[in-house]
Prior knowledge:
Layout: E1 3-8, E2 14-21, E3 24-40, E4 43-58, H1 64-75, E5 87-96, E6 99-106, E7 109-122, E8 125-135, E9 157-175
Antiparallel strand pairs: 1-3, 1-9, 2-3, 2-9, 3-4, 4-5, 5-6, 6-7, 7-8, 8-9
Amino acid sequence: xxxxxxxxxxxxxxxxxxxxxxxxxxxxxxxxxxxxxxxxxxxxxxxxxxxxxxxxxxxxxxxxxxxxxxxxxxxxxxxxxxxxxxxxxxxxxxxxxxxxxxxxxxxxxxxxxxxxxxxxxxxxxxxxxxxxxxxxxxxxxxxxxxxxxxxxxxxxxxxxxxxxxxxxxxxxxxxx
Length: 176
């Protein structure tokens, strides 16, 4: 068995997020602070990473004042509560081929998530990408959710949001 550990290069890795509402969608980025992936015989077998939730940016709102107001709202307790929870965490609990199951922790609340991952290795560099669909209400993010509030009309925000994860990592250790 050939096992390789790859440390995530945070400057070359990120998460693009998309949140949808009745009247459209918003998108942006979130930085990855640190993490690693382990490959055994070329397949992902373990890994984890830390998400810098306080780094969340909104890309589709171009007016600076509106963007700052929106960013402040996402940082508030209505959404991510970044003063108390500046980081989120993901840890792989099992992997079969390209299917990964893991624990995602947001606002100190942990739930399992499943998704498919694409991995490529070129010499000592690993590239990985995945789309993780998250039900925000499981993490106490209930603002304008139809599950908790009535008569929202066109102010309803859908519960699921997408995290499009893109990782670049460098080989750290190899054992035979």
